Inverse folding.
């Protein structure tokens, strides 16, 4: 059970990182710089769009940086 | 006839003499406890840990914390490397606990468990530059910039190369049990990052651990895995590793200009490899070792 949970977490690592780390960091950065997100989004929502999108890409392609490994 | 048959060829006598001289010189540099590396390991970890409250409470600016943390994480591997080779204390000796303590503690900032580092590194020594058996073989690259790109690519989620190939390397030697250490380290690492981020300290976590760790990984792989073995085509005791002159000097390259001494005699402490190299040099030249620009 524990091993299966760990494997699940590691398999979905990119999307988890995109949803659990990138959004609050993005919100903190935007707030610190005083930048207004577009389309009336809050800083945290902007982070979810950015982190979710990038994490989904990394989950799909297996890489944060490239189309192919 | 018997006398002729017993007389070894002259080349063998020379080879034996070279080996004897090499062993005699190497032995002079072995032994003792390299206390500098012990203080390096524990002091470096203490500074990195102290950075967190210092930055969180505003005593140290984040940009300065980032620079110090990057240096800390770059510097954290070498003491563990000494422990991996039992240099701090051999098995069965009084200070063996210190060897293991340094091994386990020093690479915490790098999120690299001691057992995994040790097992894979010893495989690298046994099979240097062998494509299927050297865990670090996938760090080979055409040049310095290409190496940095290779290092980044090897760290991508679905890569099976570089650090992400260590699981397979452990499986090959029947030590899959050690991968559990890696899983635990990763859970703590990402748990701390996410916990800090939702507590309002995400940038601090990013710049004290996540980014410095990535920079340090590339730096360490550059000087320990890539440069001393480039172009990673030769195998064999005297050809798989080279000596070379680094543009960053001996300190900037973390002593790896003399990495050939380490591969020939892994129990010589890091701080003594330059002197050992200078004394061994005529023998290395006679052996046809690569000494590039030193």
């Amino acid at each position: 059970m524990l091993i299966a949970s760990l494997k699940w977490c590691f398999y979905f690592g990119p999307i988890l990182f995109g949803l659990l780390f990138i959004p609050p960091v993005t919100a903190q950065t935007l707030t610190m710089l005083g930048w207004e997100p577009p389309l009336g989004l809050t800083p945290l929502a902007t982070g979810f769009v950015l982190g979710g999108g990038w994490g989904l890409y990394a989950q799909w392609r297996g890489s944060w940086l490239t189309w192919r490994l | 006839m018997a006398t002729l048959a017993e007389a070894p060829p002259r080349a063998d006598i020379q080879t034996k003499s070279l080996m004897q001289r090499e062993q005699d010189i190497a032995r002079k540099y072995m032994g003792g406890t390299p206390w500098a590396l012990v203080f390096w390991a524990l002091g470096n970890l203490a500074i990195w840990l102290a950075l967190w409250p210092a930055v969180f409470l505003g005593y140290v600016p984040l940009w300065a914390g980032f620079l110090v943390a990057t240096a800390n994480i770059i510097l954290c591997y070498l003491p563990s490397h000494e422990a991996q080779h039992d240099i701090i204390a051999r098995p069965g000796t009084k200070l063996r606990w210190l060897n293991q303590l340094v091994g386990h503690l020093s690479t915490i900032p790098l999120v690299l468990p001691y057992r995994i580092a040790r097992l894979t590194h010893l495989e690298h020594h046994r099979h240097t530059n062998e494509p299927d058996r050297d865990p670090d073989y996938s760090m080979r690259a055409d040049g310095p910039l290409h190496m940095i790109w290779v290092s980044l690519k090897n760290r991508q989620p679905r890569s099976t190369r570089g650090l992400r190939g260590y699981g397979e390397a452990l499986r090959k030697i029947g030590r899959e049990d050690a991968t559990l250490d890696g899983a635990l380290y990763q859970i703590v690492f990402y748990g701390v990052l996410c916990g800090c981020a939702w507590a309002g300290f995400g940038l601090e976590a990013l710049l004290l651990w996540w980014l410095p760790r990535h920079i340090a990984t590339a730096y360490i792989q550059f000087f320990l895995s890539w440069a001393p073995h480039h172009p990673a085509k030769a195998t064999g005791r005297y050809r798989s590793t080279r000596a070379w002159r680094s543009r960053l000097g001996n300190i900037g390259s973390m002593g790896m200009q003399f990495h050939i001494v380490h591969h020939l005699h892994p129990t010589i402490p890091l701080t003594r490899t330059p002197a050992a190299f200078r004394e061994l040099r005529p023998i290395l030249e006679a052996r046809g070792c690569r000494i590039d620009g030193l």
User: Anything to note?
Assistant: Chain B is about 60% helix and 0% strand. The interface with chain A takes residues 152-153, 156-159, 183, 186-187, 190, 193-194, 197-198, 200, 202-203, 205-206 of chain B (CB under 8 Å). The first strand of chain B starts at residue 243 and ends at 244.
